[in-house]
Amino acid sequence: MGPIDDLLATLSSAQGYADRPFVTLSYAQSLDGSLTLERGRPLRISGHETMRLTHRLRAVHDAILVGIGTVLSDNPRLTVREVPGKNPHAVVLDPQLHLPLDSNLVLTPERRVTVLTGRAANADAVVALETVGVQVVLMNVDEHGCIPLIPALCAIREMGIQRLMVEGGARVITSFLTGKLVDEVVLTIAPVFVGGQRALEEPVVLGSHALPRLEGGGIQDLGGDIVVWGKFTP
């Protein structure tokens, strides 16, 4: 077994907490820290080997979480296709309930999909999604109209989810890091420059506090991309 195999073995046995799942944050960025050229415009950054790693990571987690922006721009399946394994439960943060009925998430058979949305969500949209098998969970939103992460994680844990993989987009990545709600980070760095939308939309630490670090992890070249991982230590 190599270092990445050891990482996957460790993640596959991780246990959630009383009030939230164990959270693995995983995403790909360019050398200059960009996720894509601009918001809402998808860009394939990583290579095939690291894409396969993403599918291996999905296979060892109970659920995978993204924001509605990622769904609308990328229309992802969030399935395990490159390796053997069970498709994770898909969770979408969607405060205004914009999840399309014809999205790949909704149309992918034999997988569970949950949408966390605001209590003011359109009732007809709720019924339409529930009719096609999507679980809709109504939640309070914060002053910015967003789903607060701590109550969201509590609701996800109550679904029996022990291990949650978070893939993005930028707002979700930033919120999880600034909220100190990440246990493990698996970061793919592609050897390209983009000059586009950054992965982090605001500083993770303000003032004189120590910068968050990754500890006890590793680094490996995988198909020309660099994969860095470790425990998030704020």
The largest sheet, given as strand count, sense and whether it forms a barrel, is: 9 strands, mixed
CATH architecture: 3-Layer(aba) Sandwich
Principal-axis shape: globular
CATH superfamily: Dihydrofolate Reductase, subunit A
Total count of helical runs of at least 4 residues: 7
Report low-confidence residues grouped into runs of 5 or more.
none
The tally of structural domains comes to: 1
Strand order of the main beta sheet, please? 6-5-4-3-7-1-8-11-10
Tally of DSSP β-strands:
11
Note the run of SSEs as H and E: HEEHEHEHEHEHEHEEEE
What does this protein structure show overall?
The protein has helices at 3-12, 48-59, 68-74, 104-107, 123-131, 149-158, 170-178; strands at residues 22-29, 34-36, 63-67, 89-93, 113-118, 135-139, 163-168, 184-189, 197-198, 213-222, 225-233. It is an alpha/beta fold and 234 residues long. Strands 6-5-4-3-7-1-8-11-10 form a nine-stranded mixed β-sheet, with helices on both faces. A two-stranded antiparallel sheet has the order 2-9.
Features:
single chain; 234 residues; Dihydrofolate Reductase, subunit A; nine-stranded mixed beta sheet; 7 helices; 26% helix; 28% strand
